[in-house]
Amino acid sequence: MKIDILTLFPEMFEGVLGASIVGKANHKGLVSFRVVNFRQFSENKHGQVDDMPYGGGGGMVLKPEPIFRAVESLVESVSAMEAEESLTSRPRVILLCPQGQRYSQKLAEELAQEKHLIFICGHYEGYDERIREHLVTDEISIGDYVLTGGELPAMVVIDSVVRLQEGALGNAQSAVTDSYSTGLLEHPHYTRPAEFRGWDVPEVLLSGHHENIEKWRLKESLRRTLERRPDLLNEIEQTPEIKKMVEELKQEL
Q1: Does some domain include residue 170?
Q2: Which of 10, 157, 233, 249 could form a disulfide with 35 if both were Cys (CB 3.0 to 4.6 A apart)?
Q3: pLDDT tens readout for residues 227-238
Q4: Radius of gyration over alpha carbons of the chain, in Å?
Q5: What pairs with residue 118 in β-bridges?
Q6: Is 145 among the annotated ligand-binding positions?
Q7: What's the rounded Cα separation, in Å, for the pair 188 and 190?
Q8: Nearest of 3, 7, 6 to residue 17 by alpha carbon
Q9: How many domains are there within the chain?
Protein backbone atom coordinates (compact mmCIF):
# COMPACT_ATOMS: atom_id res chain seq x y z
CA MET A 1 0.00 0.00 0.00
CA LYS A 2 1.16 3.52 -0.84
CA ILE A 3 0.06 6.35 1.44
CA ASP A 4 0.69 9.99 0.56
CA ILE A 5 0.02 12.82 2.99
CA LEU A 6 -0.38 16.46 1.99
CA THR A 7 0.23 18.79 4.90
CA LEU A 8 1.74 22.12 5.88
CA PHE A 9 3.39 20.48 8.88
CA PRO A 10 5.32 17.36 7.77
CA GLU A 11 7.25 17.24 11.03
CA MET A 12 4.08 16.22 12.88
CA PHE A 13 4.18 12.79 11.20
CA GLU A 14 7.77 11.83 11.96
CA GLY A 15 7.14 10.01 15.23
CA VAL A 16 3.85 8.40 14.21
CA LEU A 17 5.02 6.93 10.92
CA GLY A 18 8.27 5.63 12.37
CA ALA A 19 7.05 3.95 15.54
CA SER A 20 5.00 1.00 16.75
CA ILE A 21 2.92 -1.09 14.31
CA VAL A 22 2.92 1.61 11.62
CA GLY A 23 6.71 1.91 11.70
CA LYS A 24 7.17 -1.86 11.63
CA ALA A 25 4.80 -2.21 8.68
CA ASN A 26 6.84 0.39 6.82
CA HIS A 27 10.09 -1.40 7.70
CA LYS A 28 8.65 -4.71 6.43
CA GLY A 29 7.69 -3.10 3.13
CA LEU A 30 3.96 -3.59 3.69
CA VAL A 31 3.33 0.13 3.30
CA SER A 32 5.27 3.14 2.04
CA PHE A 33 4.76 6.77 3.00
CA ARG A 34 5.36 10.11 1.32
CA VAL A 35 4.75 13.24 3.37
CA VAL A 36 4.52 16.29 1.11
CA ASN A 37 4.36 19.93 2.11
CA PHE A 38 1.85 21.28 -0.39
CA ARG A 39 3.20 24.79 0.11
CA GLN A 40 5.83 23.85 -2.49
CA PHE A 41 3.03 23.70 -5.06
CA SER A 42 2.00 27.31 -4.48
CA GLU A 43 2.09 29.59 -7.51
CA ASN A 44 2.92 32.52 -5.25
CA LYS A 45 6.58 33.42 -4.68
CA HIS A 46 5.82 33.69 -0.97
CA GLY A 47 4.41 30.16 -0.85
CA GLN A 48 0.90 31.40 -0.10
CA VAL A 49 -1.68 28.58 0.07
CA ASP A 50 -4.65 30.43 1.61
CA ASP A 51 -6.65 33.57 1.00
CA MET A 52 -9.60 35.53 2.36
CA PRO A 53 -13.04 34.06 1.62
CA TYR A 54 -15.23 35.67 -1.02
CA GLY A 55 -18.21 37.35 0.61
CA GLY A 56 -16.25 38.16 3.75
CA GLY A 57 -16.11 36.37 7.07
CA GLY A 58 -13.48 35.32 9.55
CA GLY A 59 -10.55 33.05 8.89
CA MET A 60 -8.64 32.07 5.78
CA VAL A 61 -9.54 29.47 3.15
CA LEU A 62 -7.14 27.04 1.46
CA LYS A 63 -6.73 27.89 -2.21
CA PRO A 64 -7.51 25.22 -4.83
CA GLU A 65 -4.38 25.58 -6.99
CA PRO A 66 -1.74 24.16 -4.59
CA ILE A 67 -3.96 21.24 -3.53
CA PHE A 68 -4.90 20.29 -7.10
CA ARG A 69 -1.32 20.54 -8.29
CA ALA A 70 -0.01 18.47 -5.39
CA VAL A 71 -2.55 15.68 -5.84
CA GLU A 72 -2.10 15.61 -9.61
CA SER A 73 1.67 15.38 -9.17
CA LEU A 74 1.27 12.37 -6.87
CA VAL A 75 -1.25 10.67 -9.15
CA GLU A 76 0.98 11.14 -12.20
CA SER A 77 4.01 9.64 -10.45
CA VAL A 78 2.00 6.64 -9.31
CA SER A 79 0.39 6.19 -12.72
CA ALA A 80 3.84 5.77 -14.25
CA MET A 81 4.61 2.97 -11.78
CA GLU A 82 1.18 1.45 -12.32
CA ALA A 83 1.81 1.28 -16.06
CA GLU A 84 4.87 -0.87 -15.40
CA GLU A 85 2.96 -3.08 -12.97
CA SER A 86 -0.15 -3.32 -15.18
CA LEU A 87 -2.33 -1.81 -12.47
CA THR A 88 -5.32 0.37 -13.28
CA SER A 89 -6.69 1.40 -9.88
CA ARG A 90 -6.76 5.10 -9.04
CA PRO A 91 -6.03 6.40 -5.55
CA ARG A 92 -8.65 7.35 -3.01
CA VAL A 93 -8.18 11.05 -2.21
CA ILE A 94 -9.32 11.66 1.35
CA LEU A 95 -10.18 15.04 2.82
CA LEU A 96 -10.12 15.23 6.63
CA CYS A 97 -12.83 17.59 7.82
CA PRO A 98 -15.61 17.90 10.46
CA GLN A 99 -18.26 17.72 7.72
CA GLY A 100 -17.15 14.33 6.46
CA GLN A 101 -18.51 10.82 6.92
CA ARG A 102 -18.11 9.59 10.50
CA TYR A 103 -15.13 7.23 10.57
CA SER A 104 -15.77 3.62 11.51
CA GLN A 105 -14.07 0.23 11.59
CA LYS A 106 -16.10 -0.78 8.53
CA LEU A 107 -14.64 2.13 6.57
CA ALA A 108 -11.14 1.30 7.87
CA GLU A 109 -11.53 -2.24 6.52
CA GLU A 110 -12.69 -0.85 3.17
CA LEU A 111 -9.74 1.54 2.87
CA ALA A 112 -7.33 -1.22 3.89
CA GLN A 113 -8.12 -2.97 0.60
CA GLU A 114 -6.89 -0.01 -1.48
CA LYS A 115 -3.46 0.14 -3.14
CA HIS A 116 -3.02 3.90 -2.81
CA LEU A 117 -4.43 6.51 -0.45
CA ILE A 118 -3.85 10.27 -0.51
CA PHE A 119 -4.71 12.30 2.59
CA ILE A 120 -5.27 16.05 2.46
CA CYS A 121 -4.71 17.77 5.81
CA GLY A 122 -6.10 21.27 5.83
CA HIS A 123 -5.77 24.17 8.21
CA TYR A 124 -7.35 27.58 8.70
CA GLU A 125 -11.10 28.17 8.19
CA GLY A 126 -11.66 25.55 5.52
CA TYR A 127 -11.17 24.45 1.93
CA ASP A 128 -12.18 26.06 -1.32
CA GLU A 129 -15.37 24.16 -2.22
CA ARG A 130 -13.96 23.16 -5.62
CA ILE A 131 -11.51 20.88 -3.83
CA ARG A 132 -14.45 18.97 -2.36
CA GLU A 133 -16.46 18.91 -5.56
CA HIS A 134 -13.82 18.03 -8.14
CA LEU A 135 -10.79 16.45 -6.46
CA VAL A 136 -11.51 14.31 -3.42
CA THR A 137 -13.22 10.92 -3.39
CA ASP A 138 -13.92 10.78 0.36
CA GLU A 139 -14.50 13.21 3.21
CA ILE A 140 -13.85 11.75 6.66
CA SER A 141 -14.49 13.03 10.19
CA ILE A 142 -13.19 11.19 13.26
CA GLY A 143 -15.79 12.78 15.53
CA ASP A 144 -18.19 15.62 16.17
CA TYR A 145 -15.62 18.18 17.22
CA VAL A 146 -13.22 20.59 15.54
CA LEU A 147 -9.42 20.33 15.56
CA THR A 148 -6.78 22.81 14.45
CA GLY A 149 -6.04 20.83 11.31
CA GLY A 150 -6.36 17.51 9.53
CA GLU A 151 -3.04 16.05 10.67
CA LEU A 152 -4.26 14.27 13.80
CA PRO A 153 -7.32 12.77 12.06
CA ALA A 154 -5.07 11.57 9.23
CA MET A 155 -2.82 9.83 11.77
CA VAL A 156 -5.83 8.11 13.31
CA VAL A 157 -7.09 6.84 9.96
CA ILE A 158 -3.63 5.76 8.81
CA ASP A 159 -2.98 3.81 12.00
CA SER A 160 -6.32 2.00 11.77
CA VAL A 161 -5.75 1.11 8.11
CA VAL A 162 -2.10 0.05 8.32
CA ARG A 163 -2.70 -2.37 11.21
CA LEU A 164 -5.15 -4.23 8.96
CA GLN A 165 -2.50 -4.95 6.33
CA GLU A 166 -1.59 -8.63 6.19
CA GLY A 167 1.53 -9.19 8.27
CA ALA A 168 1.34 -5.88 10.15
CA LEU A 169 0.25 -7.44 13.44
CA GLY A 170 2.15 -10.19 15.20
CA ASN A 171 -1.09 -12.15 15.57
CA ALA A 172 -3.41 -11.91 12.57
CA GLN A 173 -6.36 -12.92 14.77
CA SER A 174 -6.01 -9.68 16.76
CA ALA A 175 -7.57 -7.54 14.03
CA VAL A 176 -10.42 -10.01 13.55
CA THR A 177 -11.55 -9.90 17.17
CA ASP A 178 -11.07 -6.16 17.80
CA SER A 179 -13.96 -4.06 19.02
CA TYR A 180 -16.26 -3.11 16.11
CA SER A 181 -14.68 -5.67 13.75
CA THR A 182 -17.29 -8.21 14.83
CA GLY A 183 -19.97 -5.54 15.23
CA LEU A 184 -19.66 -5.75 19.03
CA LEU A 185 -17.37 -4.28 21.65
CA GLU A 186 -14.54 -6.64 22.56
CA HIS A 187 -14.77 -8.91 25.61
CA PRO A 188 -12.56 -8.30 28.72
CA HIS A 189 -8.98 -9.61 28.73
CA TYR A 190 -6.90 -11.02 31.59
CA THR A 191 -3.31 -12.17 32.00
CA ARG A 192 -0.99 -13.33 34.80
CA PRO A 193 -1.17 -13.29 37.78
CA ALA A 194 -4.42 -15.23 38.24
CA GLU A 195 -5.00 -13.35 41.52
CA PHE A 196 -4.07 -9.70 42.06
CA ARG A 197 -4.94 -7.78 45.23
CA GLY A 198 -7.85 -10.08 45.83
CA TRP A 199 -9.22 -9.80 42.31
CA ASP A 200 -9.37 -13.14 40.49
CA VAL A 201 -9.37 -14.04 36.83
CA PRO A 202 -12.70 -15.70 35.88
CA GLU A 203 -12.38 -19.44 36.41
CA VAL A 204 -13.62 -20.31 32.93
CA LEU A 205 -10.52 -18.70 31.41
CA LEU A 206 -8.32 -21.01 33.48
CA SER A 207 -10.31 -24.14 32.65
CA GLY A 208 -8.76 -24.91 29.27
CA HIS A 209 -12.28 -25.69 27.95
CA HIS A 210 -12.21 -23.81 24.66
CA GLU A 211 -15.93 -24.06 23.90
CA ASN A 212 -16.89 -22.66 27.30
CA ILE A 213 -14.28 -19.93 26.94
CA GLU A 214 -15.69 -18.86 23.57
CA LYS A 215 -19.22 -18.78 25.00
CA TRP A 216 -18.01 -16.67 27.94
CA ARG A 217 -16.24 -14.26 25.59
CA LEU A 218 -19.32 -13.89 23.40
CA LYS A 219 -21.56 -13.24 26.38
CA GLU A 220 -19.16 -10.73 27.93
CA SER A 221 -18.80 -9.00 24.56
CA LEU A 222 -22.58 -8.74 24.40
CA ARG A 223 -22.71 -7.52 28.02
CA ARG A 224 -20.20 -4.76 27.34
CA THR A 225 -21.99 -3.74 24.15
CA LEU A 226 -25.37 -3.72 25.87
CA GLU A 227 -24.00 -1.56 28.68
CA ARG A 228 -21.97 0.89 26.62
CA ARG A 229 -23.19 0.84 23.00
CA PRO A 230 -26.61 -0.84 22.82
CA ASP A 231 -27.18 0.76 19.42
CA LEU A 232 -24.65 -1.65 17.92
CA LEU A 233 -26.88 -4.61 18.68
CA ASN A 234 -29.30 -3.40 16.02
CA GLU A 235 -26.59 -3.68 13.37
CA ILE A 236 -25.53 -7.31 13.88
CA GLU A 237 -27.14 -10.58 12.85
CA GLN A 238 -28.71 -11.96 16.02
CA THR A 239 -28.59 -15.73 16.03
CA PRO A 240 -30.86 -17.67 18.44
CA GLU A 241 -27.85 -18.06 20.76
CA ILE A 242 -27.17 -14.32 20.77
CA LYS A 243 -30.84 -13.48 21.30
CA LYS A 244 -30.95 -15.82 24.29
CA MET A 245 -27.80 -14.30 25.79
CA VAL A 246 -29.11 -10.75 25.28
CA GLU A 247 -32.35 -11.59 27.09
CA GLU A 248 -30.40 -13.16 29.97
CA LEU A 249 -28.17 -10.11 30.20
CA LYS A 250 -31.12 -7.72 30.22
CA GLN A 251 -32.44 -9.59 33.25
CA GLU A 252 -29.05 -9.30 34.97
CA LEU A 253 -28.48 -5.61 34.26
Answers
A1: no
A2: 10
A3: 999 999 999 999
A4: 23
A5: 4, 93
A6: yes
A7: 7
A8: 3
A9: 2
5 assigned ligand-binding residue? no
Please indicate, yes or no, whether residues 66 and 152 belong to a single structural domain of this protein: yes
CA-nearest of 96, 70, 71, 93 to 152 is 96
- pLDDT beyond 60 at 86: no
> What sign does the CA torsion over 225, 229, 230, 235 have?
negative
More confident residue, 76 or 230: 230
C-alpha separations of 36 from 4, 41, 120, 149 in Å: 7, 10, 10, 15
Q: How many CB atoms lie within 10 A of CB 167?
A: 11
Q: Is 147 annotated as a binding residue?
A: yes
pLDDT score of 90: 87
Q: Is 204 annotated as a binding residue?
A: no
Looking at residues 66-91, what average pLDDT do you find?
78
Is there a domain that residue 173 lies in?
no
226 within 8 A of 250, measured Cβ to Cβ:
yes
Burial class (CB in 10 A: 0-12, 13-18, 19+), 245: buried
pLDDT value of residue 85: 55
- What pLDDT digit, counting tens, does each position of 141-190 carry? 999 999 999 999 999 999 999 999 999 998 766 776 676 778 999 999 99
DSSP 167: T
Active-site residues, by number, are: 98, 125, 163, 178
Is residue 85 domain-shared with residue 200, that is, in the same domain? no
Q: Which one has a higher pLDDT value, 253 or 73?
A: 73
